[in-house]
Amino acid sequence: MNISVIIPVLNEEKTIASTLDALARPAPYEIILVDGGSTDRTAEICRRYDVKVLMTAPGRARQMNLGARDASGDVLLFLHADTRLPGSALSDIAESLSDSRYVGGRFDIELDGKHWMLKVIGRMISYRSRISKVGTGDQAIFVRREIFKRMGGYPEMPFMEDIAFCRTLKSLGKIACLRSRVITSARRWENDGVWRTILRMWILKLFYLAGVSPSHLKRFYADTR
Protein backbone atom coordinates (compact mmCIF):
# COMPACT_ATOMS: atom_id res chain seq x y z
CA MET A 1 0.00 0.00 0.00
CA ASN A 2 1.72 3.20 -1.21
CA ILE A 3 1.02 6.20 1.01
CA SER A 4 1.50 9.77 -0.21
CA VAL A 5 2.07 12.40 2.49
CA ILE A 6 0.77 15.86 1.58
CA ILE A 7 1.87 18.83 3.71
CA PRO A 8 0.41 22.32 3.18
CA VAL A 9 2.90 24.97 4.34
CA LEU A 10 2.93 28.73 4.78
CA ASN A 11 5.78 30.42 6.65
CA GLU A 12 6.64 27.32 8.69
CA GLU A 13 10.41 27.75 9.06
CA LYS A 14 10.15 27.05 12.80
CA THR A 15 8.44 23.67 12.47
CA ILE A 16 8.89 22.10 9.04
CA ALA A 17 12.35 20.60 9.65
CA SER A 18 11.22 18.58 12.68
CA THR A 19 8.12 17.43 10.79
CA LEU A 20 10.22 16.20 7.85
CA ASP A 21 12.81 14.64 10.16
CA ALA A 22 10.05 12.62 11.82
CA LEU A 23 9.10 11.20 8.40
CA ALA A 24 12.51 9.56 7.98
CA ARG A 25 11.53 6.50 10.00
CA PRO A 26 8.14 5.70 8.44
CA ALA A 27 9.62 6.61 5.00
CA PRO A 28 6.44 7.20 2.97
CA TYR A 29 6.10 6.43 -0.72
CA GLU A 30 6.27 10.14 -1.53
CA ILE A 31 6.18 13.48 0.27
CA ILE A 32 4.57 16.48 -1.39
CA LEU A 33 4.79 19.94 0.17
CA VAL A 34 2.43 22.58 -1.15
CA ASP A 35 3.61 26.09 -0.36
CA GLY A 36 0.97 28.79 -0.22
CA GLY A 37 3.48 31.62 -0.78
CA SER A 38 5.90 31.53 2.14
CA THR A 39 8.06 34.62 2.64
CA ASP A 40 10.38 33.10 5.25
CA ARG A 41 12.98 30.27 4.97
CA THR A 42 10.43 27.47 4.52
CA ALA A 43 11.35 26.77 0.87
CA GLU A 44 15.09 26.88 1.65
CA ILE A 45 14.68 24.34 4.45
CA CYS A 46 12.52 22.04 2.33
CA ARG A 47 15.17 21.89 -0.39
CA ARG A 48 17.41 19.97 2.02
CA TYR A 49 15.00 17.01 1.91
CA ASP A 50 13.93 14.52 -0.73
CA VAL A 51 10.48 16.02 -1.20
CA LYS A 52 8.47 17.50 -4.03
CA VAL A 53 7.47 21.14 -3.60
CA LEU A 54 4.48 22.68 -5.37
CA MET A 55 3.43 26.33 -5.28
CA THR A 56 -0.05 27.80 -5.22
CA ALA A 57 -2.07 30.61 -3.68
CA PRO A 58 -2.65 30.40 0.09
CA GLY A 59 -5.56 28.39 1.44
CA ARG A 60 -5.10 25.06 3.21
CA ALA A 61 -7.90 23.29 1.32
CA ARG A 62 -6.60 24.55 -2.04
CA GLN A 63 -3.07 23.48 -1.15
CA MET A 64 -4.12 19.98 -0.05
CA ASN A 65 -6.24 19.47 -3.15
CA LEU A 66 -3.34 20.45 -5.40
CA GLY A 67 -1.05 18.02 -3.60
CA ALA A 68 -3.64 15.26 -3.90
CA ARG A 69 -3.99 15.79 -7.65
CA ASP A 70 -0.22 15.39 -8.02
CA ALA A 71 0.02 12.37 -5.72
CA SER A 72 0.21 8.80 -7.03
CA GLY A 73 -0.17 6.79 -3.82
CA ASP A 74 -3.05 4.47 -2.98
CA VAL A 75 -3.65 6.43 0.24
CA LEU A 76 -3.42 10.17 0.86
CA LEU A 77 -2.21 11.32 4.27
CA PHE A 78 -2.67 15.02 5.01
CA LEU A 79 -0.16 16.27 7.55
CA HIS A 80 0.06 19.72 9.11
CA ALA A 81 3.48 21.34 9.07
CA ASP A 82 3.63 21.43 12.88
CA THR A 83 2.60 17.81 13.41
CA ARG A 84 4.95 14.83 13.73
CA LEU A 85 3.94 11.29 12.83
CA PRO A 86 4.79 8.29 15.02
CA GLY A 87 7.26 5.80 13.56
CA SER A 88 4.49 3.21 13.21
CA ALA A 89 2.19 5.56 11.28
CA LEU A 90 2.30 3.94 7.85
CA SER A 91 2.03 0.36 9.08
CA ASP A 92 -0.87 1.41 11.33
CA ILE A 93 -2.66 2.95 8.34
CA ALA A 94 -1.99 -0.08 6.14
CA GLU A 95 -3.31 -2.43 8.81
CA SER A 96 -6.49 -0.43 9.31
CA LEU A 97 -7.19 -0.11 5.58
CA SER A 98 -6.59 -3.81 4.94
CA ASP A 99 -10.29 -4.01 5.82
CA SER A 100 -12.09 -2.71 2.71
CA ARG A 101 -14.96 -1.36 4.80
CA TYR A 102 -12.70 1.46 6.03
CA VAL A 103 -12.45 4.52 3.78
CA GLY A 104 -10.02 6.56 5.86
CA GLY A 105 -9.23 7.66 9.37
CA ARG A 106 -7.18 9.75 11.78
CA PHE A 107 -4.72 9.42 14.67
CA ASP A 108 -5.04 10.17 18.35
CA ILE A 109 -3.23 13.38 19.27
CA GLU A 110 -0.76 14.66 21.84
CA LEU A 111 0.08 18.34 22.32
CA ASP A 112 3.75 19.10 22.92
CA GLY A 113 3.47 21.97 25.42
CA LYS A 114 4.29 21.91 29.14
CA HIS A 115 1.00 23.13 30.62
CA TRP A 116 -0.67 20.26 32.48
CA MET A 117 -4.01 20.93 30.80
CA LEU A 118 -2.57 20.22 27.34
CA LYS A 119 -2.41 16.49 28.05
CA VAL A 120 -6.07 16.58 29.01
CA ILE A 121 -6.95 18.53 25.86
CA GLY A 122 -5.19 15.93 23.69
CA ARG A 123 -7.15 13.13 25.32
CA MET A 124 -10.40 15.07 24.96
CA ILE A 125 -9.80 15.73 21.26
CA SER A 126 -8.98 12.06 20.66
CA TYR A 127 -12.01 10.85 22.60
CA ARG A 128 -14.40 13.30 20.96
CA SER A 129 -13.31 12.31 17.47
CA ARG A 130 -13.43 8.62 18.37
CA ILE A 131 -17.09 9.06 19.28
CA SER A 132 -18.06 11.41 16.45
CA LYS A 133 -15.81 9.82 13.79
CA VAL A 134 -14.84 13.37 12.77
CA GLY A 135 -11.16 14.28 12.96
CA THR A 136 -9.34 17.59 12.70
CA GLY A 137 -6.40 18.41 10.48
CA ASP A 138 -4.04 18.22 13.46
CA GLN A 139 -4.85 14.50 13.71
CA ALA A 140 -3.30 13.65 10.32
CA ILE A 141 -6.38 12.65 8.33
CA PHE A 142 -5.87 9.87 5.78
CA VAL A 143 -8.15 8.58 3.04
CA ARG A 144 -8.14 6.12 0.16
CA ARG A 145 -7.26 7.96 -3.03
CA GLU A 146 -10.30 6.73 -4.96
CA ILE A 147 -12.59 7.86 -2.13
CA PHE A 148 -10.95 11.30 -2.08
CA LYS A 149 -11.54 11.64 -5.82
CA ARG A 150 -15.15 10.55 -5.45
CA MET A 151 -15.64 13.24 -2.79
CA GLY A 152 -14.15 15.92 -5.01
CA GLY A 153 -11.44 16.65 -2.45
CA TYR A 154 -11.58 19.14 0.38
CA PRO A 155 -14.24 21.83 0.10
CA GLU A 156 -12.33 25.02 -0.72
CA MET A 157 -13.50 27.04 2.25
CA PRO A 158 -11.28 29.28 4.42
CA PHE A 159 -12.02 27.52 7.70
CA MET A 160 -13.40 24.21 9.03
CA GLU A 161 -12.52 22.40 5.79
CA ASP A 162 -11.28 19.42 7.81
CA ILE A 163 -14.55 19.12 9.73
CA ALA A 164 -16.61 19.38 6.55
CA PHE A 165 -14.42 16.79 4.83
CA CYS A 166 -14.65 14.28 7.68
CA ARG A 167 -18.40 14.65 8.02
CA THR A 168 -18.75 13.66 4.36
CA LEU A 169 -16.11 10.94 4.62
CA LYS A 170 -17.85 9.07 7.42
CA SER A 171 -21.00 8.83 5.29
CA LEU A 172 -19.06 6.74 2.75
CA GLY A 173 -17.74 3.98 5.03
CA LYS A 174 -16.07 3.15 8.31
CA ILE A 175 -13.52 5.49 9.89
CA ALA A 176 -10.32 4.13 11.45
CA CYS A 177 -9.60 5.86 14.77
CA LEU A 178 -5.98 4.90 15.34
CA ARG A 179 -4.69 4.88 18.91
CA SER A 180 -1.12 5.68 17.88
CA ARG A 181 -0.56 9.38 18.47
CA VAL A 182 0.71 12.23 16.38
CA ILE A 183 2.49 15.01 18.27
CA THR A 184 1.36 18.48 17.30
CA SER A 185 2.49 21.92 18.35
CA ALA A 186 0.68 23.56 21.27
CA ARG A 187 1.72 27.02 20.02
CA ARG A 188 -1.85 28.27 19.63
CA TRP A 189 -2.77 27.30 23.19
CA GLU A 190 0.48 28.71 24.56
CA ASN A 191 0.27 31.98 22.63
CA ASP A 192 -3.44 32.69 23.15
CA GLY A 193 -3.94 31.02 26.52
CA VAL A 194 -5.15 27.48 27.17
CA TRP A 195 -8.61 28.24 28.53
CA ARG A 196 -9.27 31.09 26.10
CA THR A 197 -8.36 28.84 23.15
CA ILE A 198 -10.58 26.00 24.38
CA LEU A 199 -13.53 28.36 24.72
CA ARG A 200 -12.92 29.99 21.35
CA MET A 201 -12.66 26.66 19.53
CA TRP A 202 -15.87 25.29 21.04
CA ILE A 203 -17.75 28.48 20.20
CA LEU A 204 -16.47 28.52 16.62
CA LYS A 205 -17.40 24.87 16.07
CA LEU A 206 -20.86 25.38 17.52
CA PHE A 207 -21.46 28.39 15.29
CA TYR A 208 -20.18 26.45 12.26
CA LEU A 209 -22.51 23.53 12.99
CA ALA A 210 -25.32 26.05 13.39
CA GLY A 211 -24.71 27.26 9.84
CA VAL A 212 -22.56 30.38 10.26
CA SER A 213 -20.33 31.01 7.24
CA PRO A 214 -16.72 29.73 7.58
CA SER A 215 -15.59 32.97 5.92
CA HIS A 216 -17.10 34.92 8.79
CA LEU A 217 -15.76 32.57 11.46
CA LYS A 218 -12.23 32.66 10.03
CA ARG A 219 -11.92 36.28 11.19
CA PHE A 220 -11.94 35.05 14.78
CA TYR A 221 -9.27 32.38 14.20
CA ALA A 222 -5.95 34.04 13.48
CA ASP A 223 -3.13 31.93 12.04
CA THR A 224 -0.38 31.19 14.56
CA ARG A 225 3.22 30.68 13.43
- Percent of residues in beta strands? 15-25%
Radius of gyration: 16 Å
Ends distance: 34 Å
Q: What order do the helices and strands follow?
A: EHEHEHEEHEHEHHEHHH
Largest sheet: 8 strands, mixed
Number of helices: 10
Strand arrangement, largest sheet?
A: 3-2-1-4-7-6-8-5
Structure, explained:
It is a single chain. By secondary structure, this protein is of the alpha/beta class. It is built from ten helices and eight strands. It has helices at residues 16-22, 42-46, 60-70, 89-97, 116-132, 145-151, 161-169, 187-192, 194-209, 214-217; strands spanning 3-9, 30-35, 52-55, 75-78, 83-84, 102-111, 142-144, 174-184. α2 (42-46) links the parallel β2 (30-35) and β3.
Keywords:
225 residues; eight-stranded mixed beta sheet; 10 helices; 21% strand; alpha/beta
Per-chain topology:
Layout: E1 3-9, H1 16-22, E2 30-35, H2 42-46, E3 52-55, H3 60-70, E4 75-78, E5 83-84, H4 89-97, E6 102-111, H5 116-132, E7 142-144, H6 145-151, H7 161-169, E8 174-184, H8 187-192, H9 194-209, H10 214-217
Parallel strand pairs: 1-2, 1-4, 2-3, 6-8
Antiparallel strand pairs: 4-7, 5-8, 6-7
